[in-house]
């Protein structure tokens, strides 16, 4: 019997020894328990969530296989909206327990919020939808793809940081499962599509579950309790929403998998296009393009965006592009070349007699100094080149144009952008460290920065314009 304050001793006497103190039981079903616990190996102890499976009469081999698969998949996932995997273990405490440990997310599930009477606006639901689609893009585009197969309000945590976290990968399907001869039927009635109960889950199956979850948030009623017509969930008469958004949600929950959006990336693109079509043509945020529509002449013309303060940064946008030109180093920086030139002159004066005594000819002397001079010249030329940051409907790129040729330094997909912000960043020059403000594009796998050394106002302005153009605000 597991009790609060009980300490689980895992792998005692080994280099990977772990101790967990149980604090509060979060849930219990037949053969399963979920506990809030403390990881005593961390200093100070850190809160974790432990899922425990008791292998016995109520738990079959298929249950254990799903539990082990969840641990294997979570060990490989690296995403800020999936609680971090910590440990997988087994203990013998009169029963054989298998345990899975993850980071604890401070917040409440969407199911708890709905039960508590919280209502979600259309804007909030749109933001959650976009947030979860980014997460599904990550999961579905892994190699092999990962299908969650049980997206629903109880498996979505709204953290205190206002991000949505996806939990409970117990129904996850990966390539290993898909290649087997049999399938374990999983899912929750009302949220899982028909093809999933037939063992044929695809990426669009997770999109159906997402759509059903959005319907629950919008109506406050479980989709299992809503009427259906030809297997289609009927919810439009219970909400007052933008008709295009109703169409978009309804497309997510089409009974026929072929009539749904086929990928999370496709669904996100449609959502962004829908929002762009509703914005005013005079606003910055209206510039998010809709590839399926003809552009008006006003939107096709390029427009410069000018802030209320002086800046050397230039921004230009059309309906299909946002281009930022960040100027290179200030001309006054050329002064730093004076001590370099003096140093080279002194170096030459000292070494010229030595070279002459070694019968070095002028050509050899020039060959000795030429690489140093060219390296300094190239570095100086590069610093003085402007940096271009380009956003199109699908991707972004950071590049320079030496001698008229575009040289891309960084590029990525807009769908992978997790956040855009400005902050102070530490740089090193020799043995000294200094800080400069930069604008950072944070994706789920890396960070890229530009506008090094510009003011707080300039960086804040850049972040605001980019987020509005990408519809991230």
UniProtKB/TrEMBL annotation:
Residues 20-274 form the Protein kinase domain. One of its GO terms (molecular function) is protein serine/threonine kinase activity. Keywords: ATP-binding, Kinase, Membrane, Nucleotide-binding, Serine/threonine-protein kinase, Transferase, Transmembrane, Transmembrane helix. InterPro entries: Kinase-like_dom_sf, Prot_kinase_dom, Ser/Thr_kinase_AS. It comes from Trichocoleus desertorum GB2-A4. The chain crosses the membrane at residues 334-354, 366-385. It comes from the Bacteria. The keyword Transcription regulation does not apply. This is Serine/threonine protein kinase. The keyword Nucleus does not apply.
